[in-house]
Amino acid sequence: MAGPSLASVRVYPRRGDAEIAAAVLRSEGIDAVVVAEDEGGLNPGFYSSFGVRLSVRAEDLARARAALGIETLRLPYEVAAAMVQQARFVAPTEACGLFAADGDGRIVMVYPLTNIDASPRRFTVAPQEHYGAWKHAERNGWTIAGVFHSHPHTAAYPSAADVAGALDPRWYHVIVGQVLVRPEIRAYRIVDGVVSELDVVIGR
Fold it and tell me: Total domain count for the chain?
């Protein structure tokens, strides 16, 4: 497949996961290629920083996402920008916060909050601020729909601590990764320890 025509379906933390997804797409008649930078196999640790990308032709992107059952999370520009700004402002500490959705499930507000752990590797949302965000959302007829945090140095993929701390299966879990390198925003559902990545669309 020609490089300029390729579009990214998803970024995986492990090559094996990407290869399985590529096999699924090929079984559906969709050409797919796995792209990973590992210095010719000499440095597989690069995966943890940059991930393994699954790509298809741009015209096959929607069909590929449907074949893999990828849920879409739409983030307004302002919400995405606020998360990245907060992540940069508090780095190298992990940023954290909540966001709210309206009655139609559209994300309408982000609440950048304090990480009381003040750690570059974990976060705990300040309880009083959490309560304040919940009350503000309630007054506006919204619901708290999820949590975001940052990974200052590493990829936007849930750590073991992130998975263990994911208690509400209805929530979106959004991560701003590689804040100090090249910020990226990725989103997940985490249900009973199982991580499923969503497609993130940033726009109005």
Answer: 2
